[in-house]
Design a protein that fits this description.
This protein is α/β, with parallel strands linked by helices. The protein is built from 13 helices and 13 strands. Strands 1, 2, 3, 4, 5, 6, 9, 10, 11, 12 and 13 form an 11-stranded mixed sheet that branches. A two-stranded antiparallel sheet has the order 7-8. It comes from Novosphingobium arvoryzae.
Amino acid sequence: MATAYIVDAVRTAGGRRGGRLAGVHPVDLAAAALDALVGRTGVDPAGIEDVIMGCVTQAGQQAGQVGRNAVLASKRLPQSTPAVTIDRQCGSSQQAIQFAAQAVMSGTMDVVIAAGVESMTRVPMGTSAMFHAKEGLGTYKSPGLEAKYPGVMWSQFMGAEMIVKKHGFTKDDLDRFALTSHQRAIAATNAGAFANEIVPIEIETPDGPAMHTQDEGIRFDATLESISGVKLLSEGGALTAASSSQICDGSSAALVVSEAALKRYNLTPLARIHTLTVTAGDPVIMLEEPLFATDKALAKAGLKIGDIDLYEVNEAFASVPMAWLKHTGADPDKLNVNGGAIALGHPLGASGTKLMSTLLNALKARGGKYGLQTMCEGGGVANVTIVEMV
């Protein structure tokens, strides 16, 4: 089986809902990440055999087949470049990486871009299960689902609260985790840790054109007092908006290639893709699956959690990475070292390649060897990708 390599990965800085990226159409937002990736790597655009774009709410993006339209809006990619858009909920662009790797590993392709985009400003929250315990995915129930799961209300928010109770977390635990996310994001921003991964995006402001280069959701004045003062999302619950991922606009992209492509285009890889895993479990608690997917991935890789130098576990809600830490016995100092979605935002379909760009840059900066990335996904699914720096 051929080896799949990641040459580079980039992302835009996150934009708050209705914030600095609100006026950028998602097709253009995605195209900017694609163009930056092609420009930085120096790969021949004509040699790119497919673009796999993650996006969760395509109808809300006003973009049609957003992957293909992003290619057509690109300043670097020819119109002969194929593209497809996929939805594995929050793990959509992590799955894009895995599909790209599988294409390379199978020998059917040599150069594939995995990418993702989401303009959450354009998506009414009523279409999302994240915060709607009363409606949630139950809005989309079929007779078949109702027969198998009678009376179940499908909600990621409810699943996150179930994890809180199951693992014995308190509201104070969640608030302290959220504060750490902001503190790490602040430190990373101030140290320039994101400079290599962020693609500047030109935006219009009341003062004229500007470049968007810094994650807009970071609370530089965050304190435990300010976080703990945010009202609960549900009566008797523990989660608040402050201990949940931020609604976010953004895009991201990664170049996945074969060894033959490295030689053909004179490319230098950052990492090889070591292990790919996707699993599915309980669709009601829903967000706990990264725990068990990680067990399977480590066993498949022949590695232990202590062998992994850094981990990116998406902060959909604070309870998810906290439960992951408790289950795996992982070192909390290696988790989301530059902050996570609570501080930086979670642009749904873009988060998979976004986290990969952060993971690879953090591993490079620290001289680490192995990195592990996992995402909780709607319906009780989870992806795990293990990379090895080269």
